[in-house]
Structure formats: structure tokens, C-alpha cells
Known about the structure:
The protein is mostly helical. It has helices at about 25-30, 40-65, 65-80, 90-100, 100-105, 105-110, 120-135, 140-160, 165-170, and strands spanning about 5, 20.
Amino acid sequence: ITLLMCDDAPQFVWLTEELALCWVHDARHYTKLRPRFGVHFEALRTFKEDYWAFYRELLAYREAPSADEHVRLETAFDVLFARVTGYDELDARIAKTRANKVALLQVLEHPEIPLHNNASELACRARVRKRLVSGGPRTPAGAKAWDTGMTIVETAKKLGVSFYAYIQDRISGAMQLPSLADP
């Protein structure tokens, strides 16, 4: 693996040759801002509109990459994230995003990658929700069974296969449904 898509957590740095940052994770920092004055509310609202407009331009680039658009988007990034609004917390957040330019714009070099990793995170959350409800597995064997079961559930869901039909097919020995490992 030479390229990893992740949030900005420090444990991911240096794991791969290239690091791509998730735009949705970056945007969450702007959502956490709590302006107190009308002018700051407006600055944040306007910036977030421009942020998501730029995101949509990156999505369009993925569909039809070109050298000219590559250069234009890099320049547009520099303009957007050089903005100074007068709202100190917003300006500090914009500067942090600007510092992550290379990782956020990996899509310009690798149009095949997504701009966010929410699908991966959502798949992991199913296990977390189960652990919160049940208190978690009690033994290492239980943890392994959980992981196996949750993997089968999530894979079946992604492939549009009924989990229950798949399990019944395997336990009964009928083996009429294709393996989840087969595309």
C-alpha cells in the first residue's frame, strides 16, 4: 500500500509513501466552530459554502481529470485557503487546512481515490455500536467470532446478499449462493 486515505490523526503519518486526507473529516472542524457575532456567523456560512463548492469541483475533476484543471484547482485551493475573515477561530482553522494541502489534494495526482473515507468508517461503527449495546466480547475467541460475524454481515450488505440466507446456505451445506469473496 503506497497511499492511505485517513483523517488527520498522527498515528497514520509515515505508514505509507503518500497520505490522503478525508475532506469530510476536515470539514467537521468547521462545524465545531461556535461564532458569537453575526459577522462571524456570516463569515463561517460563506466560507463553508465556498468549501463545499470547491469539494464539488474536486469531485468533477475525478470524473474528467486534465492537466489544466489540475493547475486551476491547485490555484483555487490556494485562494480559498488564504482567506482571512477576521474571525480568529475560523482563520486558524483555514490555516490548518491550508497546511494539509498536499494530503488534501492527492486526488489531483490520483483521481481514482475517493475524497472521503466515510464508507470505511461507517462499516467499523457497526462493531462499535454492538459493543456498546452488549458490553463487548468476554474472551479472545469471542472477539474473533464477533469480527468474523460482523465482517460477513457488512460484506453481505455491500453485495446485496441476505445475511440470513447466506448463513443458512452455508450451515445447511447447500452451497447454492456464491462465496462472498467472489466478486
